[in-house]
Amino acid sequence: MAIAESAAAGGRIVTIGEILVEIMATQPGDGFRAPIELTGPYPSGAPAIFIDQVAKLGQPCAIISCVGDDDFGWVNIDRLKRDGCDVSGIEVRDDQVTGSAFVRYTTSGDRNFVFNIRNSAAGQTRVTEAAAALLADCAHLHVMGSSLSSASLIRETQEAVAAVKGRGGTISFDPNVRKEILGAPDVLQAISYMLSACDIFMPSGAELTMLTEAKTEAAAIAEILGRGITAVVVKRGAEGASYHDSTQDRRIAGFAVTELDPTGAGDCFGATFVTCRLQGRPIADCLRYAAASGALAVTRRGPMEGTSSFAELDALIGEGAVQ
């Protein structure tokens, strides 16, 4: 089913998964084995960044997650609520601590993370009564591969997917694979399940071929579409993005911006594409807005600090500066 067919423009978008704080090293280097200067905490977690971007675009939305009853949890809840996200599906537990991610950039531009997800409140995420009510009125569910980090999160996510699909809703999946979680039990199996369940697949780079037998990008796209997935949207960073379905292939160049922090750019891209598609906008417009959203995200330090409104996206698009 095409996303635009699943509900009217006012349909609710829901995501399920981790809410974290992110604490960043101020200088590049290799890891955290010596005292270094840090900045943060920033509201974070791939699903949380995604849904905050949806909210900034004025689309009804909600997140299902779990945080501790601590400052790290409330800094996220307050930000999401302020930006217009329904936070009723966030369970606050006084016997858990909010998840965290410490990140440091290497001199080559790669990132190293130290995550606390599985053993934090995020790892206890479940579909509560309030969360079930959100899923009952959900037009579209978005899933991040980073959320498939524990057996309980995998189970709850798969049950949410089944509930939404059973009511005629649609699913998007961003594999968002972190090397730090690939060793977790059943992660690759869970990612494979999501690839078979989603309507739209949104990989970056090597993620496109990770779960196929294909050796080329074109063959991988053909194989994935052959599984019944409606569309593949490939995020290409500064080089833009491409869209592929059974009838068309489209590509858009990236926008020329000064990169400060790329964390969250892919999440903003995906959120904007899904929102625009749910609103029934043409594919070309969805790609253009999504690419602009990802571009604006990298210009601000902090994973959720780069979410933007349609007015801000229109301003960047109006400048017309592409790579």
Q: Could you please describe the fold and organization of this structure?
A:
With 323 residues, this protein is an alpha/beta fold. It has helices spanning 46-56, 71-82, 129-136, 151-166, 187-197, 207-210, 217-226, 265-278, 283-297, 310-319; strands spanning 13-16, 20-25, 38-44, 61-68, 90-93, 99-105, 111-116, 140-144, 170-174, 200-201, 231-235, 241-244, 249-252. The strands form 2 sheets. The protein has a 9-stranded mixed β-sheet, sandwiched between helices. A 4-stranded mixed β-sheet has the order 3-2-6-7. Helix 4 (151-166) links the parallel strand 8 and strand 9 (170-174). The longest helix has 16 residues, at 151-166. The mean pLDDT is 91.
Briefly note the CATH topology name.
Answer: UDP-N-acetylmuramoyl-L-alanine:D-glutamate ligase
Strand content: 15-25%
Largest sheet: 9 strands, mixed
How many DSSP-defined strands? 13
Order of helices and strands: EEEHEHEEEHEHEHEHHEEEHHH
* Name given to the CATH homologous superfamily: Ribokinase
Shape: globular
| Low-confidence runs of at least 5 consecutive residues | none
Topology (SSEs and partners):
Elements: E1 13-16, E2 20-25, E3 38-44, H1 46-56, E4 61-68, H2 71-82, E5 90-93, E6 99-105, E7 111-116, H3 129-136, E8 140-144, H4 151-166, E9 170-174, H5 187-197, E10 200-201, H6 207-210, H7 217-226, E11 231-235, E12 241-244, E13 249-252, H8 265-278, H9 283-297, H10 310-319
Parallel strand pairs: 1-4, 1-8, 2-6, 4-5, 8-9, 9-10, 10-11
Antiparallel strand pairs: 2-3, 6-7, 11-12, 12-13
Helix pairs in contact: 1-8, 8-9, 9-10
